[in-house]
């Protein structure tokens, strides 16, 4: 177990990473190799450690250092452990949501698109999805409903933002993911990797989710668009198929996270190998 350091003052510099650095400052875009993220709760921290993420420090209520946090600290014998009483920690916005434990970790280097897709048969593509809560919920659905990987455009939210990690319940560490760059139109790039692309959009000519062409596709990429506007028409035109979820009672569409769960459940079913 690392050194246990008692914190009594909310303004202590050791708390900066947890309380005063913005998500942009944590990310450290000028030097991504020094970027950090915050994992919350024992389950999420465990999944991050299992995925090979490197811890920098822990912050927790003192009682947890010898309680539910002990198994994690044993795994990280050289990592400092900052402890404080609940009255100090509750000054951190949202600390009461963390189940008493935080961990600052190094941001891992991202793999290439080709590496992420190498053994994947069902992937999700998130085009400019902006809300971290939606990102986290989509990752949780992707993990539960047979998506092998997630690809994101750079304009969207970061899966390692604190809220996204929390909402995902740590599944951002279980589903391989990376960003798409702008060098080659990504539908073309995925097609070269053997994927058929399916745009989720409200169009009269859209296919049903149970269309055999989709269910029998060997490699399939399910494409979801930004909140509100959905996918750009140019993106829809570049995809192989368009599909929509039938609505009732005058509802025009689902939230992107809810729509992802429906689509992943149906389209995540695996065809028989040829």
Describe this structure in words.
The protein is α/β, with parallel strands linked by helices. It is built from 13 helices and eleven strands. Helix 8 (132-144) runs parallel beside helix 9 and helix 8 runs parallel beside helix 13 (256-267). The mean pLDDT is 89.
Instruction: Give the topology string: H per helix, E per strand.
Output: EHHEHEHHEHEHEHEHEHEHEHEH
Q: What gyration radius follows from the Cα positions, in whole Å?
A: 21 Å
Mean pLDDT: 89
Beta strands, count = 11
Broad structural category: alpha/beta
Percent strand equals: 15-25%
Q: Helix amount, in percent?
A: 25-40%
Shape annotation: elongated
Strand order of the largest sheet: 8-7-6-10-9-11
**Major sheet details:** 6 strands, parallel
The number of helical runs is: 13
Q: Distance between the terminal alpha carbons, to the nearest Å?
A: 51 Å
Q: What are the low-pLDDT stretches, counting only 5+ consecutive residues below 50? A: none
Briefly characterize the structure.
By secondary structure, the chain is of the alpha/beta class. It has helices at 16-19, 23-27, 42-50, 62-65, 70-75, 86-89, 113-117, 132-144, 162-168, 186-192, 212-215, 233-238, 256-267, and strands at residues 4-6, 36-40, 55-61, 81-84, 101-106, 122-127, 149-153, 177-180, 196-200, 220-225, 241-243.
């Amino acid at each position: 177990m690392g050194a246990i350091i008692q914190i009594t003052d909310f303004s202590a510099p050791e708390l900066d990473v947890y309380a005063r650095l913005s998500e942009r400052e944590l990310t450290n875009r000028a030097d991504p190799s020094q970027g950090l993220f915050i994992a919350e709760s024992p389950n999420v921290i465990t999944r991050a450690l299992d995925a090979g993420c490197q811890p920098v420090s822990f912050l927790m209520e003192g009682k947890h250092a010898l309680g539910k946090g002990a198994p994690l600290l044993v795994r990280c014998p050289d990592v400092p452990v900052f402890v404080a009483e609940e009255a100090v920690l509750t000054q951190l916005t949202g600390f009461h949501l963390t189940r008493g434990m935080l961990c600052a970790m190094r941001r891992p280097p991202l793999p290439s698109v080709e590496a992420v897709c190498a053994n994947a048969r069902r992937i999700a593509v998130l085009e400019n999805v902006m809300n971290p809560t939606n990102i986290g919920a989509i990752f949780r659905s992707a993990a539960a409903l047979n998506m092998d990987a997630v690809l994101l455009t750079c304009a969207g939210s970061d899966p390692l933002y604190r809220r996204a990690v929390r909402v995902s319940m740590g599944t951002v560490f279980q589903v391989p993911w990376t960003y798409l760059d702008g060098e080659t139109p990504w539908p073309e790039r995925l097609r070269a990797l053997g994927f058929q692309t399916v745009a989720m959009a409200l169009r009269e000519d859209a296919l049903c989710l149970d269309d055999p062409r989709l269910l029998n596709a060997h490699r399939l990429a399910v494409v979801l668009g930004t909140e509100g506007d959905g996918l750009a028409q140019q993106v829809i035109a570049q995809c192989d198929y368009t599909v929509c979820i039938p609505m009732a009672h005058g509802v025009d569409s689902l939230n992107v996270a809810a729509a992802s769960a429906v689509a992943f459940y149906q389209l995540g079913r695996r065809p028989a190998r040829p």
